[in-house]
Amino acid sequence: MAITPAASLRAAIVTGLAFFISAFVAVHYSRLSGGVAMVWLANAILAARLHALPVRCWPATILACAVAGLMLTSLFGLGWRAAPFLTAANLFEGVAAAAILRRITRSHWPDDTAEWMAGYSLGIGLAVPLLGAAVSAITLSLVAGLPMRVNFVDWLIGHSLGLLIFLPCGSLVCMAWQTREPLLPQGAGTRAMLLAGTMAVLTLAVFMQTARPLLLFPLLLVVFGGIWANAFVALMLPMILATLGGLLTLYGHGPIADMQPSPTDLNVLAGRLQFFQVYLGVTVLCVLPIVAEQERRRRRMRDLAHSEARYRLLSDHVSDVIIHMARSGTIRYASPAITQLTGHAPEQLSGVDFRQIVVEEHRAAVAAAWNAAVASPGEPVAVEYLSLPLGGPSRWFETHFRAVTNETGDVDGLVCVTRDIAQRKRIEEDLSRAALTDPLTGIPNRRAFFETAERVGASGVPSALAVIDIDYFKLVNDRHGHAVGDRVLRAFAETAVAAVRSTDFVARIGGEEFAVLLPDTELVHAEKVCQRLAKAVNALAVDTPQGQVKITISAGIAALGAHPDAALAAADSALYHAKAEGRARLRVAA
Questions:
Q1: Is the confidence at residue 144, as pLDDT, over 90?
Q2: Is-above-0.90 flag for pTM?
Q3: The domain at 440-588 falls in which architecture?
Q4: Residue 346: in which H helix or E strand, if any?
Q5: Residue 444 gets which letter from DSSP?
Q6: Cβ-count burial 476-497 (b if 16+ within 10 Å, e if not)
Q7: Confidence check: pLDDT of 265 > 50
Q8: Are 470 and 583 in contact (CB under 8 A)?
Q9: Can you identify the CATH homologous superfamily of domain 318-426?
Q10: Are 242 and 175 in contact (CB under 8 A)?
Q11: In degrees rounded to 5, what are phi and psi of residue 358?
Q12: Residue 152 to residue 136: CA distance in whole angstroms
């Protein structure tokens, strides 16, 4: 929110007025030894206001408080000679506390509770007032001849506890005033008033009697407020305790007023006030870590709620299935898209082991991917498998597993994204088939033949192969054209597939050259199969516009061993001899 010069000036005047009033009350009621005030809230007011303002607006507020401090010290305090030094010490404390609070809040609030508490208690609660106490003690000793040690202790305790006790709540109020944001969540006003009223009644009850053990009960309520209420309410409770308990202690009521640390009335009252401030300081230091931790948890819960809302919106509207599982594999949540892909309703799968919807032969692969994801949390691991949809054939799916860890770093479960890849698998199969199929005849090509021959040869079962060549095929192309030649090749392929056994493998390995793989077949039986094939080809007649075209074949047969290339070379050699002897005949390699 932008701050206009006029608004900045008004805010500076208001802060200066608040600084003056609080300082006047402190000087009037707690300046018991004739030196510095023993209770000091003004610097907390200045620091809280500066913390809420942009740095460019600090000068006006500091100037307003400087004027207020000079006037107060000159007119109602230790006089004009001490005023500049004491005012400078107070301004230093306010500015330094605001700067430290801004830095530690930006760096550590609320995620790093220990770091924030260390910066707040040691920096703001100790280092800052320690320097101010040194300046004031030296000033009062030189200007007014007052004892240095007493004023040093009174300043240090009063200013330190003032910052520790009042700065947290004051900064929240100033931030809310600056940003126009409510201090309480919607609907929390009644509960806040009830807790504040309880604190007021409990404080009055404790400080209207003299039993010191009862001082524990306000502390317990403050701790309870830190756990149950929001930050403002939790930090407001010590303010109520400070106001009511402080007034009653000042007027001689309560467990602390019954203490007698010194025989003189003046020192008795001073001791009571200092003990009460220490009691308040301990109370605030007890509740601040709780407030920080609770605020961290509330922010995390809000982030988780927003994340879950986005996750639900995403999972409900994407075609991929999102599944959350326990580490054991039990499904905790499945997105609605699973119904469209598998027929299973999400509630049907709750509590079901994920592996139960995977076909048995693929469960090992899924388990391996699962274990790899658990071993490397945060790293996605993909696996493809056949799943078992409800009331239908198995379908191909791809799942990406990612293990999720808890706060201690242990794997708490897995989130996976599953998609239907049946169409992709069909495309892959089509592409694989196309890569192994002769486009003209539709039978396997040379690559497919050699891959199959290697598998058969490696099995060690006696097998054979035949290389077949269409006789005088070049004359067919020259006389009738390539279109007729293509028809002849297709007709031969169909005839060959029909003539051989179902276990045999026919492939086109060249222009008009074909090969037949005959698994588990001795050469004598292979020769009979090829003779049957030759007889079927001799009976083949391909119709053309110029009349029927008839063809014959020559073949070379060889035994298939572990090296298909050698067997093919032997069959080629036998084919060469068959053609040299006049074609239309078969020869077996020696």
A1: no
A2: no
A3: 2-Layer Sandwich (3.30)
A4: helix 346-349
A5: B
A6: bbeebeeebbebbbbbbbebbb
A7: no
A8: no
A9: PAS domain (3.30.450.20)
A10: no
A11: -110, 140
A12: 7
Render 413-435 in DSSP notation, one character per residue. Answer: EEEEEEEE-HHHHHHHHHHHHHH
Q: How far apart are CA 519 and CA 455, in angstroms?
A: 10
Torsion of CA 315, 320, 323, 329, to 10 degrees: 180
Rounded to whole angstroms, the Cα distance separating 511 from 469 reads 9
48-62, 114-128, 278-292, 297-311: the lowest-pLDDT one: 297-311
- What's the pLDDT band for 392 if we cut at 50, 70, 90? low
Q: Which residue has the higher pLDDT, 237 or 182?
A: 237
The structure tokens listed for 48 are 């809280």
**Torsion of the alpha carbons at 99, 100, 106 and 107, rounded to the nearest 10:** 140
Do 249 and 276 meet the contact criterion of CB atoms below 8 Å apart? yes
The CA distance from 217 to 219, in Å, is: 5
Measured distance between the N- and C-terminal CA atoms of the chain, rounded to whole angstroms: 99
- Per DSSP, the three-state class of 79 is coil
Q: Is the pLDDT of residue 285 over 50?
A: yes
Domain boundaries, the chain: 1-182, 191-316, 318-426, 440-588
- Angstrom CA distances, 221 to 191, 198, 217, 253, stand at 14, 9, 6, 21
Angle of helix 148-179 versus helix 265-317 axis, rounded to 10: 30
Per-residue pLDDT of 350-383, as tens digits, reads: 888 888 888 888 888 988 998 898 888 888 889 9
Q: Where are the alpha helices (DSSP H) in 438-552?
A: 446-458, 473-480, 482-499, 523-538
Q: What percentage of residues in the chain have a pLDDT greater than 90?
A: 31
Yes or no: say if 208 and 30 are a contact pair by the CB < 8 Å rule.
Answer: no
Residue range 8-49, pLDDT digits in tens: 788 889 999 999 999 999 888 888 777 888 889 999 999 999
Q: Which run of H or of E encompasses 104?
A: helix 83-108
Does the domain at residues 1-182 carry the CATH identifier 2.20.140?
no
Length of the chain as a residue count: 590
The answer to whether the CB of 286 falls within 8 A of the CB of 218 is no
